[in-house]
Write a structure and sequence with these properties.
about 475 residues; alpha+beta; 16-stranded mixed sheet; 14 helices; about 45% helix
Length: about 475
């Protein structure tokens, strides 16, 4: 009987592993050591130490590299290793790091011999190309250590005490072991999307990386239209038995994700969601709050961070599974961007994540429903909110997901007008006012409406013609090469 039970348990484990691998598009890799890193105070010095010790290669990827003291410190550290003969490859997003192609910021790094690329700069033949961004944050050094996080390289993560701004709350992970090779290959994926591929000798053979511990994990490399992490998170929500605790910086969820969380909460799972109380993009806060009601009514507990900005993207479930990375719970991250997350299946690491989550809740305010109205209820030992200020603007890529929430509010108004929330009402008032303005302009000055539409139509038409010509040219060259 015991032998039969053991065989059955092993078969279920194989099926579960297969489901996770197919859903997330990432195999389970064993033999790793991981370390949780909190905020810039722990992440940045550890990253700089690893960069300074590099002997062979550095793969550096960040959505934002600030043209400030922090950005220059990392740029100069990378340049120093490049001058020492280390192969340095740097990848940053063009929108996330605006203007870097037009300034002297990268010149010292290129002069030192490093390769620097910007992801997806504007192209005339791709009018909507800007919607896809490289939102990943990773560093790989010598094939021996890798870092994956939600932190970008900019001074705002340190905060500014002189202006009453605390350091941003954010989370990263250090990886040692065979999974480092998977992080390298995730970098190579986006590098290839920007031009020539990395040479084989720039990547580490997974078989050559010795075990560094006993932790199993998956490197989930999200890509446009893949939605691997969304499927994986929904799978976790469907099988969680006791608790599922989430942290997110830009919470603008799709309906299926909300349904998964609500179903778990109704089934008795302790589902908690920690989000910013004040976002670095102020208009996102009311959009995010407009999604609270269905969650709260289903029993999901929602908390808002009391500090300057909560930028972490993490999850922990049942004390066995945890996630750290760059993906936010919105459509832009799920299906629009290149994202990178690490899903760890280890009780010890999950326990560390749970302790950190409980500590974070001491600095948050719980949102509750009372008499069909949303109110705020302090959790024990919450931090004083006095003197706190909003963070400066940034991460403008979240605007695409904001448009999704806007569309959801419009749909609610049309199909279920009595279910509109207070914040949805604000969206509707804004939309109504904007449409009135457009209508008046169209009636009084029709050319002011017609000309911009004509210009956009011509732009798209020319872009389509150019891309069609390039496609025909490439196909003709391929036939000639085969002939």
């Amino acid at each position: 009987m015991i032998e039969h039970s053991t065989v059955r348990s092993g078969a279920l484990r194989l099926l579960a592993d297969q489901a996770f691998s197919r859903t997330g598009g990432a195999p389970l890799v064993g033999g790793n050591a991981v370390r949780l890193l909190k905020d810039a105070a722990e992440n940045f010095p550890t990253w700089l130490e690893a960069i300074g010790s590099a002997q062979r290669s550095i793969l550096f990827e960040s959505y934002i590299v600030g043209d400030d003291a922090t950005g220059r410190e990392f740029r100069d550290a990378l340049a120093a290793r490049a001058r020492a003969g280390v192969r340095v490859h740097v990848l940053h997003d063009w929108i996330g790091s605006p203007g870097k192609l037009l300034t002297r910021f990268w010149r010292p790094l290129r002069a030192a011999g490093a390769s620097v690329r910007a992801f997806n700069p504007p192209r005339f033949d791709s009018p909507l190309g800007w919607l896809s961004r490289d939102h990943r944050k990773s560093i790989c050094v010598d094939g021996r250590v890798a870092f994956v996080s939600g932190l970008c390289v900019a001074a705002r993560w340190h905060g500014d005490p002189t202006k009453g701004r605390e350091p941003w709350r954010d989370t990263g992970i250090e990886i040692r072991g065979p999974a480092v090779a998977d992080v390298e290959r995730a970098f190579a994926q986006v590098w290839a999307a920007t031009g020539q591929q990395l040479a084989n000798d720039d990547l580490t053979d997974p078989a050559s990386v010795p075990p560094a511990g006993d932790v199993h994990l998956r490197v989930v490399a999200g890509a446009p239209s893949a939605a691997g992490l969304m499927r994986l998170d929904q799978l976790i929500a469907s099988i969680a038995r006791s608790r599922l605790w989430l942290t997110d910086a830009y919470f603008l969820p799709v309906a299926t994700y909300v349904q998964a969380l609500c179903a778990a909460a109704r089934d008795g799972v302790d589902v908690r969601l920690l989000v910013p109380g004040a976002s670095d993009i102020p208009f996102l806060s009311p959009l995010s709050r407009s999604a609270y009601r269905p969650l709260l009514e289903a029993g999901v507990r929602v908390f808002e961070w009391n500090g300057t900005m909560l930028h972490a993207k993490t999850a922990v479930a049942d004390g066995r599974w945890a996630r750290v990375g760059s993906t936010n719970l919105n459509l832009a991250s799920f299906v629009g961007n290149y994202e990178l997350d690490v899903a760890v299946e280890d009780a010890g690491f999950a326990a560390t994540m749970e302790r950190q989550y409980r500590d974070d809740l001491l600095h948050a305010t719980e949102i509750v429903l009372e008499q069909r109205r949303r109110s705020r209820r302090p959790v024990p030992a919450q931090a004083d909110r006095s003197g706190r200020r909003r963070a400066p603007s940034g991460s403008a890529g979240r605007a695409a997901a904001g448009a999704v929430r806007f569309g959801s509010a419009i749909g609610t108004a049309i199909t279920r007008p009595r279910e509109l929330l207070e914040h949805d009402g604000r969206i509707m008032r804004t939309a109504g006012g904007a449409l009135i303005v457009v209508g008046v302009i169209g009636a009084v000055w029709p050319k002011a409406i017609a000309w911009p539409f004509a210009a956009v139509a011509l732009w798209f038409a020319m872009a389509f013609v150019i891309r069609a010509w390039r496609g025909s040219r490439d196909a003709r060259r391929a036939r000639e090469d085969r002939g």
